[in-house]
Amino acid sequence: MRTGTVNLPLHTGKCPKWLFPRMKKLSGVISEMIVDEYGSEEFIRRLSNPYFFQALSCVIGFDWHSSGTTTTTCGALKESINSLNLGITIAGGKGAASRKTPSEIENSQLSISTQKLEKLKYASKITAKVDTSLVQDSYNLYHHVFIFTEKGRYAVIQQGMNDHYARRYHWLSDNVGSYIEEPHEGICCDKKQDNVLDMTSKKSRENKSICLDIVKDNPKHLERYIKKPPQMTLDSFSEKAPEITFNPRHDIIDMKKINIQTLQKAYEIQPENYEQLLSVKGVGPKTIRSLAMIADIVHGKPASWKDPVKYSFAHGGKDCIPYPVDKKLMDNNTQILRDAVRKAKLGKKDRLYALKRLTNFY
Fold first, then answer.
1. CA torsion 312→318→321→324, rounded to 10°?
2. Are residues 107 and 166 in the same domain?
3. What is the pLDDT of residues 161-204, one digit of tens each?
4. The model's pTM
């Protein structure tokens, strides 16, 4: 997995009304060119590449360093691509829109079997849960976009945020050998974080195995890791507050009763592997973290605590960074590309080949 960093500070407000329609048109014609020339499968492969996605966002006029780069670009792509007959559907989005992903997959106009649709819905669900529970980096997911083709291939673009910055997660079905072990195409962020629990790392493989054994062996005995409040004594009523003491060996574990109850449900199911354990309803970041710590402390199998985190100007940016958007240039370029696509469909590909040769200058 290639790595790199980029600042994505949280920007408030909405995309200007004059900009979004232009982004929609330009992203649509660029998408159409790529699909016509290379196919729908190649197009989603490119979107799964964080560097291509970032460049595309900048080409269509959005800020290179804004959290809205992800949400607005995906919104423009969704509206344009879903209105074109490219053999691609984009589902999901920001906030409440992300929760509509399963129904949007089901209602896709693409010719996909029921079996493949169920696999796509599962992929949408499990990728979101992995980036919520297995990569614990203090960024909370609020954006989930699922892009898929008639062949059942997909790309996922997710984004999480903390107090000041955003982090973007990219997936591509072709390269997902396992949902729970180094499945990402790339993770973009402002900087690496300290103390990030990465259960997707190969270095966490033994830890995951121990966690599964703990659950299948009946997690009832994990109640010893529940922190209990201090007992009240006569000293408790003095001016001096009672001291709270825990066994230092277990002090970092925060296993709650609700975690035990969830694991009891998992025990009754007897998951065959760690992915099935993760899929159990109620198993979230706290449960995963507690199990990982217990596996480390009791059995000496540590998980990875290394952050797995892994950029193009053409028309300016909406906040005048690096310079104001040139509306006329943006509209002209959209028309040039649109004309090239139309002529290529008529067999006149000279202009399309000329545009293609421009890549030699990069």
1. 100
2. yes
3. 887 778 899 999 999 999 999 999 999 876 778 889 999 999 99
4. 0.77
